[in-house]
Amino acid sequence: MDDNIKMNAYALRNENFIDTVDVSCPKCGTRALVMGGQPFGIIKEYEDQVRFSCISCGYAVKYSNTPESTFYTNSSGVKKSGRILIMNAPCDPFFGFGVWYYIETRYGSLWAYNELHLSVIENYIANPQRSRNGLPNQNNSIASRLPQWAKDAKNREYLLKMINRFKSK
Ligand SMILES: [Zn+2]
What we know:
Layout: H1 3-6, E1 20-24, E2 31-35, H2 43-46, E3 51-53, E4 60-62, E5 69-73, E6 79-82, E7 101-104, E8 109-112, H3 115-126, H4 142-145, H5 148-151, H6 156-167
Antiparallel strand pairs: 1-2, 2-3, 3-4, 5-6, 7-8
The structure holds zinc ion.
């Protein structure tokens, strides 16, 4: 992939960025990391690698040590359980901790899993051409999931200012 496509909000999904998610530590509120996510992987196959850790307070959790959810109980009374990822929400997909990159605007919130993810969203808002470069308009792409207010030209300057203010704090 060339850089143009790599950074194109029409070609990427939020899931592309789950490998390292910057979150707010649920114990101390500082910036911490959820690592080990594999975009488009099967969670059963990589759950051992997913972990949360906070350098500030030392809180750490392995995903494989968290309880599985029960999906249903079958006719023999056996509970069937597994793991459901929380996708496309302002929290990491595994533990559900709030993302660090969460920006309140007067229209609603913008959020991202990590800095690169935020820069894709920022580039999309900043680019008045909104060029797909011949890419098909994919369902579930970052661009297709952004709310209309994030796409309105009249909000562009304000939203970029809010993103910049966040990045400089
Ligand atoms: Zn902490």
